[in-house]
Amino acid sequence: MTKNVKIIIEYDGTDFVGWQRQPNGRSVQGEIEDALRQIFSEKINVVGSGRTDSGVHARGQAANFFIPSSADVNDLLRSLNGLIFDDIVIHDVQVVEEKFSARYSAKEREYRYFITQMQTALERRYCWHVGYQLDIAKMNDAASKLIGSHDFQTFCRAEAATEHYLSSVFDARWDVESTGKLFFTIRANRFLHGMVRLIVGTLVDVGRGFTSVEEFEKIFHSHDVRNTGQSAPAHGLFLERVVY
Amino acid sequence: MTKNVKIIIEYDGTDFVGWQRQPNGRSVQGEIEDALRQIFSEKINVVGSGRTDSGVHARGQAANFFIPSSADVNDLLRSLNGLIFDDIVIHDVQVVEEKFSARYSAKEREYRYFITQMQTALERRYCWHVGYQLDIAKMNDAASKLIGSHDFQTFCRAEAATEHYLSSVFDARWDVESTGKLFFTIRANRFLHGMVRLIVGTLVDVGRGFTSVEEFEKIFHSHDVRNTGQSAPAHGLFLERVVY
Predict the structure, then answer these.
(1) Does the pLDDT value for residue A74 go beyond 90?
(2) Residue A217 — very low, low, confident or very high, per pLDDT cuts 50/70/90?
């Protein structure tokens, strides 16, 4: 018999090859699985809500895994944080029903992307430095076109294998922090591979005047990733939370 | 003939041995001097407003140096940032009068110290994780005793050589950010070696109930560093700005 355990994870993606375990390099999944093996002396498979690419951060990634039903869950948070290096922090551990899957039970995911217009030493690992002026009103106008249920093939990496390209976007908007830092919030039921970074890169082209809002709409409905702007760099992207 | 140039510097102290050039390891002063040598093909001595220890960050360190009067200052900001690795960013370059000294002309310096009560992966390099409950009202009560002109020998590292221990503290208070992060702001005309970190360590002892406000006052006036709490770790400390 086993218990199904759900955890919430914060990580600094800088030094990881990404969420998913890979033959070479540190992965978030791999680090957590290695810690679980030390605690339970057996191989435990950790299922994340989704993969994040190398360099992408998370404030609220969710995952689940099964542990022996005799195991004590109370000390698991502390044990995991004690074993894992400090660029991963587990913030919550709870027993959930057996059929819960961090991947398939997720109803909504929220990502944020941070842009600084002034070069910064202290935040260089956590936002994209865009030196030119950006028209936030135009970027928000274009972003609003994404809201609703659409085919997002345009914003999916060409090599990504997926059954379909449909996604329902609940929110997509730019805000400005009091420090002047910009951030893009996007909430959707499903994200395709590379979707947020391709959207951000294309919206930045709107903001700097390279692409009009009308052109952005045409690109969006072209179903062809070759029409997008550059993919925004990984280090500005944060998986904020997963809603179940 | 030379021109006196003042610069404002932001740096992530994590990977530095500190501000001051040392035989081994990267220093902020050393990196800037190396870049200036590349630009002007001569050794240029950079004077900072003061030293910061290894691991201490700066948002607004100030420094000055002399360049040939024939040199063009307009491109210096860009040239310096182009040559220096991205954990140092120069934010301002201006020609100042010959007698200006970043060290001796400074009237006031402001430091901030950040504490998080929740373990964090993303901010682990920029704040001290203090797991136990802290009584902010008591910490502020104790901090208020520091304001004014006093002898701060208690909060000076024993090995530091200095003519006298007098400092005028204009402000010393704790605030709480909306995220729950605490920060201590202290402004003074002069800081002794290790002063902010010794004060913060001792105030945290007040906050957790190890030391009463009355005991804090006694420690402050004991002129003996052996009575203080632990020195708070370097990575929570930021030199915010220098006023001239």
Answers:
(1) no
(2) very high
User: Which residue in B88, B118, B122 is closest to A121 by CB distance?
Assistant: B88
Given a cut of 90, is residue A159 above it in pLDDT?
no
- Together in a domain, B132 and B72: no
Shared domain for A91 and A35, answered yes or no, is yes
Same domain, A35 and A128: no
Is A86 touching B (CB cutoff 8 A)? yes
* A101 belongs to a structural domain: no
The answer to whether residue B140 is domain-embedded is yes
Name the band, by pLDDT with cuts 50, 70 and 90, for residue A104: very high
| Shared-domain flag, residues B119 and B235 | yes
Question: Which of B52, B78, B122, B124 should we substitute to test contact with A (largest number of A Cβ atoms within 10 Å)?
Answer: B122
- Give the CATH number, domain containing residue A13: 3.30.70.580
Q: Based on the domain organization, do B76 and B123 belong to the same domain? A: no
Give the pLDDT band (50/70/90) at residue B179. confident
pLDDT digits (tens, 9 = 90+) for B25-71: 999 999 999 999 999 999 999 999 999 999 999 999 999 999 999 98
Task: Tell me, yes or no, whether A76 and A120 share the same domain.
Answer: no
Which of A96, A118, A136 is the C-terminal boundary of a domain? Answer: A96
**Chain B from 135 to 194: CB within 8 A of any A CB:** none
CATH number at residue B144: 3.30.70.660
Chain B positions touching A126 (Cβ under 8 A) are 122
- Report how many domains make up chain B: 2
Chain B residues with CB under 8 Å of A118 CB are 91
What value does the mean pLDDT take over residues A60-64? 98
The interface predicted TM-score (ipTM) is 0.91
Cα–Cα distances (Å) from B215 to A28, B175, B203, B206, B212, in that order, read 46, 22, 11, 9, 5
Do B137 and B226 fall into the same domain? yes
Contact (CB<8Å) A10/B120: yes
Segments forming the whole domain that contains residue A135: 108-243
Q: Do A86 and B121 touch (CB under 8 A)?
A: yes
